[in-house]
Amino acid sequence: MKFPYANLNLSSKKQKIFRFAWCLNFIVSLDQKEYRVFLIVLTRLFTAISSGFKLSLCCLLLICADASFHYSSLYGRLALISQAYAESNPPTEFFKSITSNASDSARETAKSSPNAEHGVITIETAVARALAGNPGLAEIKARAEALAAVPSQVGALPDPTINLGMLNMPTRNFNLQQEDMTMMEMGISQTIPFPGKRSLREQIAEHEAMATEEALQDARLRLAAEVKQSWWRLFYYAKTLALLDTSAGFFQQLIDIAQSNYKVAKGSQQDVMLTQLELSKLKAEKLDLLTLRGAEYAKLNTLINRIIEFSVHLPSEAVFKFPDLSATELQNKALKFRPLFAQHGKMLEVAKANVELAKKDFYPDFTVGGGYAFRQNTPTGQTRSDFASVQLSMNVPLYAAQKQSKAVDQRNSELLQEQYAAEDEHHKILSEIVAKVAEYKQLKEKTLLLEQEVIPQAQQTLNALMAGYQVSQSGFSDLLRTELSVLQYQMQYWQTKTNTQAVLAELSADVGEDLYND
To answer: How many whole angstroms from its chain centre is CA 501?
Structure first.
């Protein structure tokens, strides 16, 4: 396409302004494919614009060319533009970096979720993103990797010591040949812990590393449960907001009917005012729910490592699972699969090994070494013999009553502490499983009751009252009260139904197994 002002006799500065304005007007009509082609043409124009205009125009180009642009993603786009521009001064490389980064990001998002192009986050996608990018989980993983490198370090021998020295040097003239005992010495020594100490230290480090790995797995379970609970709360908010919108439309219909009846003297103005009051209450309730939803957006975005301001788009429908659960069976599974129990088992092994190591400290460590001393010949040229030496030393636990014995008492107390902590955690989790199974069964029964009996009966009553009111055969207050009851029952239904899934997520974390697949 030819630039329309190319043939005008304008100054260089005015041509730049005209070019800039023409581009802004032109890009608004471009779709994404045309926009990428236009980037190539626009590269030449950028050579004549200052760096400040380059960055500003790039922001506008990226925003205008994306039909699905949301203001919540502006921060990410600006960060991408700033990074790309900082790394690539030449305009051509600048555009290449932006388009390639955008393409790579789109491909990664498309791979991560089949609904990614619509911004829909399913519960599986949310859990996968949290497990892949949550900083808290990454911190535990890094700690586990750090501890995995410890056993080989503590199991190795201490580094040997090399010593160099000058012995019996006369300070009057520093002559190496004058005195017979003047010599240059070099030696090496090695500390050897009492047999069994190194293996115990290595064993302790290995169990600590394995305990941290089990803690990582347990943190993954708890994070997945937290993400699922947050997701189900957002799903409940979405359904409840939809119900409020539907009820608001119904109340508006009632207002119109009440006003019509009032005009023909078949109704009272009180009916209109009561309906308007209930409509205002619905609006206030909707505002409260929007506030709660905004806070839950921030929480879920934090868990899955997204920008907090981003909105979360959920699918309109979700799959609900209602497995039959037995508290005794789940308790047995928890003892078998829950990583937290395995973690406590490893820490008990650490405490036992620490007791054994403390007992080993009653025995001495050894240091062996050897040296060689060089002597100079006499001033008359007579040869002097060199000296060789070996040594063996050990520490003596002379103050065992104040040190080693107290250390054994300390380690025994720590072992008891770990045993009591494991037992307490054991009872706590098993009791939580019993309580949550009971809660799950109650919520499941209530969901079925609301779905199969309460809501259908209330809806039939509402339909009958609505038909009767239109022909002035039923009271307005009964109709209004029944509509509010239907709304409350429907809200209770979605709250109860989503709560069953949230409790199921908690039980999955407590048991150490995904109960959604049962």
So the answer is: 21
Q: Which amino acid is at 40?
A: I
Q: Please give the single-letter amino acid code of residue 291.
A: T
CA angle centred on 63, ends 61 and 64, rounded to 5°: 65
Report pLDDT digits (tens) over 333-361: 999 999 999 999 999 999 999 999 999 99
Q: What is the pLDDT of residue 310?
A: 82
**3-state secondary structure labels for all residues of 377-409:** CCCCCCCCCCEEEEEEEECCCCCCCCCHHHHHH
CB 356 within 8 A of CB 200: yes
Q: Is the pLDDT of residue 75 over 60?
A: no
Cβ-count burial 163-178 (b if 16+ within 10 Å, e if not): eeeeeeeeeeeeebee
Two structure tokens written together for 410: 């300390």
Whether 253 and 512 have beta carbons less than 8 Å apart is answered as no
- In the chain, the N- to C-terminal Cα span, in Å, equals 62
310 touches 301 (CB < 8 A): yes
Find the mean pLDDT for residues 175-201: 92
Q: Which long-range contacts (CB under 8 A, 24 or more apart) does 176-185 make?
A: 176/376, 177/376, 177/377, 177/378, 177/379, 178/379, 180/375, 180/378, 180/384, 182/375, 182/376, 183/373, 183/374, 183/375, 183/386, 183/387, 184/373, 184/374, 185/371, 185/372, 185/373, 185/374
User: What is the Cα–Cα distance from 88 to 95, expressed in whole angstroms?
Assistant: 9
The count of residues in the chain is: 518
Q: Are strands 366-374 and 387-394 parallel, antiparallel or unpaired?
A: antiparallel
Q: Which pTM was predicted?
A: 0.71
Reduce the DSSP state of residue 319 to 3 states and report it: coil
Cα 19 from Cα 23, distance rounded (Å): 6
296 in Cβ contact with 305 (< 8 Å)? no
91 compared with 175, residue with greater pLDDT: 175
Cα(125)–Cα(132) distance, integer angstroms: 10
Query: In the prediction, which pLDDT does 6 show?
Result: 47
List of residues 6+ apart from 170 with CB closer than 8 A: 178, 179, 182
pLDDT on residue 13:
54
Q: pLDDT tens across 392-425, in order?
A: 999 998 899 999 999 999 999 999 999 999 999 9
Q: What share of the chain is helix, strand, coil (3-state, %, to 5)?
A: 70, 5, 25
Q: Evaluate whether 18 touches 10 at the Cβ level (below 8 Å).
A: yes
